[in-house]
Amino acid sequence: MMKLTGASIFLAAATLVAATQGASAAEQARAAMMNANGESVGTVTLSETPQGTLLHATLENLPAGAHAFHVHAVGVCEPPFKSAGGHFNPEGKKHGINNPEGMHAGDMPNIHVPASGTLEIEVLNTLLRLDDALFDEDGAAIVIHEGPDDYVTDPAGAAGPRIACGVIGK
């Protein structure tokens, strides 16, 4: 059994704190979500895990119903948010969770907003990494569409206009 002195306990604790702080900074990102009028509709925090990226969304002032929820390839959110480009797709796959030739790394399940317009959810995206592909020179964004993704139609799931967007930043 090893005897720990006060100095060795302090050093071990400082090392653990430094490692944890470094991992948190390198493995987290955030998107401030805005609607077409420039009003805040919430935030999405992205945290890398060994199984992919966990997205924690806290949303408000959204229309009730099902909405497509995607990661898009360009980090620009100028209404009507077409500036965010297509879905994030570094592997060149087809679109859709149900597409046998898919799916994009930016494809995720629909969100279902209740009548209150407020929703807090977590989504694990097993294909998404907080790496150089996501944080390339033109960045990436989270986009919410007016309607639901049909999970098959290429390239975007027939989800309709984009109603909210947030640039993903470290």
Strands, helices and their partners?
Elements: H1 6-26, E1 28-35, E2 40-49, E3 52-59, E4 65-67, E5 69-72, E6 111-113, E7 119-125, E8 141-145, E9 162-169
Antiparallel strand pairs: 1-2, 1-9, 2-3, 3-7, 4-6, 5-8, 8-9
Low-pLDDT runs of 5+ residues are 1-26
Percent helix, as a range, is 10-25%
Per DSSP, what share of the residues sits in E-state strands of 2 or more residues?
A: 25-35%
Radius of gyration: 19 Å
What's the helix-strand series? HEEEEEEEEE
Q: Tell the overall outline.
A: globular
Our count of helices gives 1
- Find the count of extended strands (DSSP E, 2+ residues): 9
Distance between the termini: 42 Å
Kindly state the mean pLDDT as a whole number?
85
- Main-sheet strand order equals 5-8-9-1-2-3-7
Helix-and-strand structural type: mainly beta
Largest sheet: 7 strands, antiparallel
Task: Summarize the model shown.
This protein has 170 residues and is mainly β. It has one helix at residues 6-26; strands spanning 28-35, 40-49, 52-59, 65-67, 69-72, 111-113, 119-125, 141-145, 162-169.
Care to describe what's here?
This protein is mainly beta and 170 residues long. It is 12% helix and 33% strand. The chain has one helix and nine strands, in the order αβββββββββ. The strands form two sheets. Strands 5-8-9-1-2-3-7 form a seven-stranded antiparallel β-sheet. A two-stranded antiparallel ribbon has the order 4-6. It is globular, with a radius of gyration of 19 Å. The model is unreliable at 1-26 (pLDDT under 50).
